Amino acid sequence: MRFSILGLWLLALPALAADPVSFRNDREGTSYYSGNKKAVAKALREVDQTQIVGAFDEVLKNSEKNKLCSFDFNKSLLRKLKEINPKFTEYNGAIYHLRAENQIDDTVVKILTDAHNIFATDPRLPKDPENLFLPKQDKVLELLPVIGSFEKNFLKVACFDEAYRNMYSELMKVDKTMKSSHLEALLVKAYESKVINIDTYLNLEKARLNELEMSGLTLKAYYQKVANLRVQYPLRDSTEQSNFVTQKVDKMKVSRRQRLLENYTDLQIILMGNVIKKLRTRLDSQKVEILIYDREQGIETLTLEPMERFRLAIKLLRKEMSLLSLNTYFNGRSPDYMDLMTAAYEVGIIPASELDELAGLQDIWNPKKTFWEKARVWVTTFSSVATIVIPPPYGFIPALAIVVIEATAGKKSDPNAEDPTSLF
């Protein structure tokens, strides 16, 4: 399994190199950022909408895949917009407009606006010396040269976000107890000691204030991830869009698709999608049998009824979800039901029509309802469990509804519950 997936990924590389850079939205419906209409209106008052798209296309044509960088991209696009209107200030509004025109998707919006907001941050100068706390002196002597080498050893070979994370990682190797307040003092010390210049100091301080070391997905990594998925799983309909994947993740400031792309590799997304693919195959099967053998031959065949087939499929789903965390590709990470459904949509296993049909069943999403109250909604909506034998999309939606119920019922873990990795 490992070698077959790696083989597909390696085969995708030549095709990936041949295509021009594109960030065009091919999966998302209503944008997670659709509430930023005022920012878009302000941007359009400063620069015409066709000029924004035109400037974006120019920057995109001059972008190299192996050198994609959100900070450089922003700098080039902002420069072109200011050539049109020197007083242009509504950069984020221009990005939201590009999303409204489907030139980019929500993940690219987040990457570009986060990068822009970092450099737009006020570094809060001057610093009060009494509020600066350096690490131990012996550590300071080791840490300052690392900061001093930022431009030569880190920024010269990587985008600013990657360079900062690499530098931060090296600093943590020297002092694992280092906190943000320590880094704040170290940056001031580095500037005062002329280890770094004022521009480098300001950029690093802005990155520290925005906790850039915590960000995960770069523009280059995003492009490579999505391009690999499209080569291995070509979309049946590039105009298909789903509102389900752009809905906000509970207690997080990202959409479901943003979380998927930020937290999982392309290989992990493929494996997660295949779990739902197998669920669908089992539910679409017209016959499921259990064969009982003696020492030489079969002596009994048990044919499962629709309800039994459904229960078996759901139990196999739970088992395979538990086994994913044991897979070497996941390193102990356990994706949840929503991650699996979003991944399945990303690779074209679940069409948008089914996800949006599911999203419309509001009662099963109600966090105040119990598991059985939600299950009752499912039964009354789909008449009976016998609907699983109806051809898709109607047969698969009830199964996804149960998956949602499992994910949102708010059940506490039972220490006496059955082992999910065991089928019987």
Q: What class do helices, strands and sheet pairing give?
A: mainly alpha
Radius of gyration: 26 Å
Strand content: under 5%
Tally of helical runs:
19
Total beta-strand segments: 2
This entry's quaternary arrangement is single chain
Question: What's the overall average pLDDT, rounded?
Answer: 85
Largest sheet: 2 strands, antiparallel
Please tell me what the overall shape is.
Answer: globular
Written as H for each helix and E for each strand, in order along the chain, the element string is HHHHHHHHHHHHHHEEHHHHH
**Which strand order spans the largest sheet, edge to edge or round the barrel?**
1-2
The low-pLDDT segments are 384-394
Intertermini distance: 25 Å
The percent range for helix content is 55-70%
Written account of the structure:
With 424 residues, the protein is mainly alpha-helical. Helices cover 56% and strands 3% of the residues. The protein contains 19 helices and two strands. Strands 1-2 form a two-stranded antiparallel sheet.
Which helices and strands appear, and what pairs or packs with what?
Elements: H1 2-18, H2 37-46, H3 49-61, H4 70-84, H5 91-100, H6 106-119, H7 137-148, H8 150-154, H9 160-174, H10 180-192, H11 198-209, H12 219-232, H13 256-263, H14 266-284, E1 289-293, E2 298-303, H15 306-324, H16 337-346, H17 352-359, H18 371-382, H19 396-408
Antiparallel strand pairs: 1-2
Helix pairs in contact: 1-12, 2-5, 3-4, 4-6, 5-6, 7-9, 7-10, 10-11, 13-16, 14-15, 14-16, 17-19, 18-19
